[in-house]
Amino acid sequence: MKTTGIHHVAIICSDYERSKKFYVETLGFSIIEETFRAERNSYKLDLRVGESAQIELFSFPNPPQRFSSPEACGLRHLAFKVDDLEKTVDYLKSQGVETENIRIDEITSKKFTFFKDPDNLPLEIYEN
């Protein structure tokens, strides 16, 4: 099997409008397509992340809760590349988003930090 990259990451949210606002207005991802699926009473929002990656944001009635700790078994977190970590942290804080302290990756010596989406999903920003 030969892959050419990651196409998308799917996220199920508890409050569609709140999460849509967070990912579009706060994080600045652009909308590719928004679809309401009446048979599932569910929205699917395709978002552009960078030049080629996507997030599929889903809403479902009464989704089950999931552990969100970065150390829980399963998907650990979603990380976004940024050119200037401090500037990005300052922007997130200006939007009311709390971030952890900036850390240095002991392997790459790159700066990174974590924050959470409206459903407590751990998100990382990692400096190029």
Q: Would you mind describing this structure in some detail?
A:
Residues 5-128 form the VOC domain. The protein is α/β, with parallel strands linked by helices and 128 residues long. It folds into 2 domains: 1-61, 2,3-Dihydroxybiphenyl 1,2-Dioxygenase, domain 1 (Roll), CATH 3.10.180; 75-128, 2,3-Dihydroxybiphenyl 1,2-Dioxygenase, domain 1, CATH 3.10.180. Helices cover 16% and strands 38% of the residues. It has helices at 16-26, 85-94; strands at 8-13, 30-37, 42-49, 53-59, 78-82, 103-104, 111-116, 122-127. The longest helix is centred in the first third of the chain and has 11 residues, at 16-26. The two termini are 28 Å apart. The model has no long low-confidence stretch (mean pLDDT 91).
Using brief descriptors, characterize the structure shown.
metal ion binding, four-stranded mixed beta sheet, VOC_core, single chain, 2 domains, 2,3-Dihydroxybiphenyl 1,2-Dioxygenase, domain 1, 128 residues, Glyas_Fos-R_dOase_dom, alpha/beta, 2 helices, VOC family protein, globular, metal-binding
Topology, please?
Layout: E1 8-13, H1 16-26, E2 30-37, E3 42-49, E4 53-59, E5 78-82, H2 85-94, E6 103-104, E7 111-116, E8 122-127
Parallel strand pairs: 1-4, 5-8
Antiparallel strand pairs: 2-3, 3-4, 6-7, 7-8
